[in-house]
Amino acid sequence: MSDWQLQAAVLVRSKDEIPEILKKWDSFFKNPVLVLLQGPMAAGKTELVRNFAKLKGFEDVASPSFAIHHRYRRASRDQMEIDHFDLFRLSNEEELESTGFWDLIENKQAWIFIEWPERLSEDQISRRIKLLKIVFKMNPDDSRRLELYERNR
Question: Are 14 and 109 in contact (CB under 8 A)?
Fold first, then answer.
């Protein structure tokens, strides 16, 4: 049996469609959850995080490409956070370890998004953590197919 189960798939022709898609998928994003964002450069991974954050009341979301990790906090009193990682620039597991990544995801009650999850081993992520994967597949007409998977526990 596969570790992953396809939960939803949708064709996206414009980034303007992303907020509506995220609203439809909202039940999958119950906190805490770790979301792996898999797809080629410029597929819309950061755009998806930006739209998710906006829908949840966060502001000023940027790509963490150069910083590797950004944390966003809501202005409200609930102290909810989004941790957004971009692992593209990491070259090995030791670099990831030095960021405190594993401690953060194991002990966090937050929404955690990881771009370029190919840089880590999914097997290292505890089964206690709800794990989603959104796969971005590019089409010749610049549309994208987004597939939402959930890891079996």
Answer: no
Q: Residue holding tokens 């809501």?
A: 74
Does residue 132 contact residue 10 with C-beta atoms inside 8 Å? Answer: no
Which helix H or strand E contains 1, and what residues bound it?
Answer: none
Residues 51-62 pLDDT 10s? 999 998 887 776
The neighbouring-strand residues paired with 69 are 85
The H-or-E segment that residue 106 falls in is helix 101-106
Name beta bridge partners: 114. Answer: 36, 85
Strand partners, 11: 145
Question: d(Cα 8, Cα 6) in Å, to the nearest integer?
Answer: 6
Instruction: Give the separation between CA 99 and CA 56, rounded to whole angstroms.
Output: 26
What does the alpha-carbon distance between residue 139 and residue 60 come to, in Å, rounded to a whole number?
29
Q: Judge whether residue 81 has pLDDT over 90.
A: no
Name which of 153, 65, 152, 51 is nearest 111 in CA terms.
51
Identify the CA nearest to 87 among candidates 141, 124, 142, 127.
Answer: 124
